Task: structure prediction
Amino acid sequence: MNTDWQTWTALGVVIVTAGLFVLRAMRKKKGGCSSCGGANAPIPKH
Amino acid sequence: MAAALLLSDLAAGAGGVISDILLGHDEHITRLRELGLVPGTRIRVVRRAPLGDPIEVSVRGSRLAMRRSEARHIHITTE
Amino acid sequence: MPAAAPASDLRTDKATRESVFALVGNPNCGKSTIFNALTGLKQKVANYPGVTVEKREGTCFNQHGKRIHLIDLPGTYSLNVHSPDEAVVRDVLLGRRADTPRPDAVILITDASNIERNLYLATQVLELGLPTLLVLNMTDVAEAKQWRIDVGKLSQRLGVSVVPMQATFGKGLVELKAAMSKLGSADFQPVSSNVHPARPSASGNELEARSPSQAGSLCHLPIPPDILGGLQQTRADLIRSGTVSENVSLLEPLYLISDHDPAHYGIEDSLVNRLAAAHDVLEKKLPGWEDRLAASRYEAVEKLLLDVLRRPERDESTTTDRLDSVFLHPIWGGVCMAAIMLAVFYMIFSVAEGPMDWIDKITGSTSGWIEANMPAGDLRDLIANGIIVGVGGIVKFLPQILMLFFLIGMMEDTGYMARVAFIMDKFMGRVGLNGRSFVPFFSSYACAVPGIMATRTIASPKDRLITILIAPLASCSARLPVYTLMIAAMFPANGVSTLQKASLMLSMYVLGTGGAFAFAWLFNSTMAKGRSSLMVLEMPTYKRPSLRHVARYMLERAKMFLVRAGTVILGLSILLWAAKTYPKPGTPEPADTAAKVAYRSSQLSHSFAGRAGHFIEPVIKPLGFDWKIGIGLISSFAAREFFVSTMGIIYAVEDDGDDNVEPLKQKLAEDRWPDGRPIFTPLACLSLMVFYVFAMQCLSTVAVVKRETNGWKWPIFQIAYMTAAAWLASFVVYQGGRLLGF
Result:
């Protein structure tokens, strides 16, 4: 069937997108704030 | 004759020498003094904003705008 | 002295590594113009982690073809920090940041026409002992004021090379590069670093070790002896308590204990209290030491300038004065500002209109082309109706955004922005904001995205946050299609004059503005965090704008929006498409056009979005909305104007690609509640318009707020409060209207 692969690909794209959103939200919660980088990390003294 | 005034009382064009700055918050006062407003500095009111507040002052050759509520803490002596 | 070259751990092998130069200077000194001139296109912009302080880096080549890494540090008046961006300057110069190497040399940029204040920062930077080069920028402005600066003497007294420049005209760039080559070469040892390197012997007594020949020079004069002694004691105490490491210079404790930034950015939380205690100890011993330190620095600058600067007894009337006598005139000032703001709006709407239509057409024809050339199926639908229409609907606003950035950039670059802030300060002050908030808020009437991105010029973090929070309440151009449709649906007969329609439209703008000010006032009086900061604003001299600089600003912002917001928008467009598509009905789509339209309508009402519409119906019914409007509300979360197209699908109106609302209007007027009452009564239309005035339905804005506030906290708060306000306002309108018998 011609439309079959489209159905599955579209579904795949949606699931991957949703997965990425969930993954990003999870990673944020777990590791404090991943995008804050070194802001809360101790500042090395020389 | 020297007269003690507040910066906020000066009319546009008038000036004097800063005698003291009495601002409650030290956070505020540090910024003012770092912009060159230390006792002994000449200061002149250039103009008022069209709505009457803030005022523009000339100090050490640069121009600053501040609210009158802030200028009220700056004491001036005029000659 | 052995430590002539600052010994940083980050420096491994000087020969193999490119040297790092930092650009330091006051705000408005032309620093970014010089940075752009030096680096050209070889630069990148990012944020310092955790704060919205821009990290600008670039590379340039010196005269010998050696690569130099340039860091453009934020503009600052002092190393005594008041805000996170100033903290970045302090920490980079002291080598306290893990993500940025301590610079090998500093290019200190000063505004010649404000030399006295600019040299204050110079006294602090020169003390650090890094090889330094002083740029005396805007010498033309100083000349216009009839100021004569003896460059040779200044250089001799400061012990550093001084390069006069007029960066706006590209003058002095060659000389600057030559001086940079000299500074970067190994055999060059600046006088100042011999006197007191910032990475000193363990005693920290380096400031006392002055050679007599330099006693009169500026770079090590300004710390009075008793304060110096006090600071040495503080340093020793801080080392003993383990707050700072042993080989810290004397100056690092000085700038750490006089950190006045409420957030204490760049300082470990555990150290803040210890540093505050050390500050109090010193304050008790030497009351007012910070005042005296500042005063003694200015005294040193004054003394230095006696020889170096000759200026007329009275201020000469400059071009800036003459311009200000018009632009800040009690009457003409307001008139000029109104005219300029009107011109800004005219340009945004008229000039951006053409490109916006093109983008619309391109979006339409691309998805049309895909539908024509791809076999029918879900993927085709996802690409054509999900991704292209979704992303296109937002990219459509790019011309407006670019135009606004261009005009905001022009106002900043010419110096007019500070005048707008000066004029509007009292007005904005009524609701607790300051004059700097005006242009960002005003811009939001076109589009909140550039408005929110323009809030970076607001120095006070609290005022900036409040401005960001209220900006989307300004009725942006994406609301216009919704207002237009609802006004059309409200007056089915043609007996209503254009004037009435226009005044209804206008009242929506008034409502949004009133709401914005009310919320600004509310937030200002309830948010305890972040004391209102001093509204001291520098009034820079007027400058001829540099088109290149403004164009760069515009493109940079646009890129930031597209890259950062773009990924979120793309992702959510896909999800929204999924919500409107799944679960799929069992039957395949019919080929016949009329049946297809009906099929799509039924499919949408059975999709997740449709079910969500049904689900929220009880909540929105008191506002006069049924589940179909609910679907419209949900889908317009992507962007408000999608409401119209979604309603088109639900009501099975064939999309002819035109902006004609007539067919949809007819269908809306015919729709009935189950009990036979019409749904789109004038009151329900009004209620819906009011809902759109307040509701935060814009993905791009959410994405930008997230970026500008560094997290999801504030965008989520914003969605919550705006949705609550929208619901409440609509409720009052609808139920109030019904009580009054409408």
Notes: The CA atoms of residues 43 and 59 of chain B lie 5 Å apart. The interface with chain C takes residues 25-36, 38-41, 47, 49-54, 56, 58, 60-67, 70 of chain B (CB under 8 Å).
